[in-house]
Amino acid sequence: MIWQKESVLILVKATPNWSSSLGQYTICTAGINGDGEWRRLYPMTWRTIKNNDIKLWDLIEVETTEPDKDQRPESRKIRDISVKNLGCAIKDREKRRKYLKRVTEAHLPDAAKEKKTLAIIKPILFGFSIEKSEEKINQATLYGGVFKTRPYGDIGLLYF
After folding, report:
1. How do the domains of the chain map onto residue ranges?
2. Which of 57, 65, 111, 125 has its CA 20 to 30 A from that of 101?
3. How far apart are CA 118 and CA 52, in angstroms?
4. What is the DSSP secondary-structure string of 54-76?
């Protein structure tokens, strides 16, 4: 197993999942390395993220290697103890937008052709509408009022 040091700008942190093999929560974390390549860093434990205070837009330094079982090209196994948070790399909102624009794929087929399993894809929107529908009453209160489980559930945001 050959370990190499990489710097990765963190752009994605998924919901924690319990790993029965590790006996702790892990969080699929992804970002872009210094060469502009996506990296899926796993297993990133909750403890590692908490101890290093890793947030979106942080630049981390980490030792990575090719995974044993995961065949996705962006996936890298990490050495937990090597993770070092270098701090927020891009603080300005406009600079973040420019960065995201630069790394965004124009079309899904472009990403699929290169067999990417991680990408930011800008959708082509032909329209947008807001529609209000009549929500079904799920339950009435003791005083005859309506109890809504989703207060704004009757508003739909539609992209097409």
Report:
1. 4-117, 128-159
2. 65
3. 24
4. --TTEEEEEEEE--SS---TTEE
